Amino acid sequence: MSESYGRIIELLAIERDTETFGLRIKLSLIESAEPLWLTDNETIANIAAVTEFDGVHKHRISLHTAWDANKQQYIGSITRTYREHSERFSFACSVPFRNELESIKKIRHADDLHTLPFLSTHRSEADQPEEMPAAEGDLKTNRFARKRRHLPLKLVSAIMMSLIFVVLLSSFNYSYPGDIKPYSAVTATAEAETVIQLLAENRSAIIAKPVAASKEEAAESRPKESKPKDNKPSASIPQLELEEFISFSLPKGYVALTFDDGPSKHSIDIMNVLKKHEVGGTFFFVGTNVKKHPDYVRAIHANGYSVGSHSMTHSQLTSLTYEQQQAELTRVSDLIEHITDEKLVLFRPPYGAFDDRTEALSQQQGSKMVLWNRDPEDWLTRDEDKILGYVQHIEASGSIILLHESQAVVDALPKIIKHLQDQGLTIVSLQ
Q1: Are the beta carbons of 406 and 378 closer than 8 angstroms?
Q2: Quick one: pLDDT band at residue 291, thresholds 50, 70, 90?
Q3: Which of 7, 345, 384, 411 is deepest in the core (most CB within 10 A)?
């Protein structure tokens, strides 16, 4: 299994760091770190040309690049998402960018960030969050606010035309030998740097704009959300509706306990612990196990807990054809929906492995893909104390914790719940 499965690189902003520019990113498995990726200016200019940070959409950098043999050029892609809606944009990228991306994919812990010289964890004073006056309370819903100066419309148009010109100009000059090797110089660097400099001087950073000044304006600009039909969770169980098509974390103050690979002989025991403590829980069931234990699915759903699919056979979806992936998703959905008499909304790909085809199929089914940002590797240790110890030593606020149905999890669960509640966190079922 690839080391990059379950990884997401979220692009938060394009920022200036002293004399250069970088990509402010957030790694899904290291939520506390938001390093600045100091890559080449031309790739940054190409990325700037296909992104629009509007405070509503999120941008995710693909973990993979493709080689365009005709243009002799590597191509990267960025997915812009808002809830269940997403668009993908391609951009030309350099060999150094590609090599840096491969290194980022191998990161497993926060300490690993310091081993990559192109990742900077330093923030200048200008990048620090600022306190906003009470009159601008609506802006506080953003990740953080920074000083901005808005560009006149004509200047915006001129800058964007310059960016496009730079990209077109550079496309005529790429020439790589057959055996590609890393290089440090790219064409049109000076032009790209000038364009980025102009943007930076007028906007401080090419960063998420403030959320619309009024809630009415924001509502008008956002796609309509499709609600699952007939979904009536128990009023006593804390619920949290996911707003993104792909989620790997929650808002601060919330935490989700998720249980994979059931239903099993441990399912009802897990449910009973959750009920006793009046907390939420989300179960991701495998189709072959659903066929063995349909009554467990029925009981968990009847008690108000969230049920999602985890494929039909727990196969590595990225190794399957489109038709095979489709069967993995639709067969398990049909099984569970027949039992619950409700539309299935949540889906978690086995191993966190998915590709463009998986995303397309999930969107066709109206599913929300749920990943995670905390993994105690309970399936490996099967040790109650190690599972509990992991949870006690993480920043749990905003976490989606990955667990598996086992006796060790059943035994550790009451102490995990107590620890999370002692932190003042709300343990929710995902919707």
Answers
A1: yes
A2: very high
A3: 345
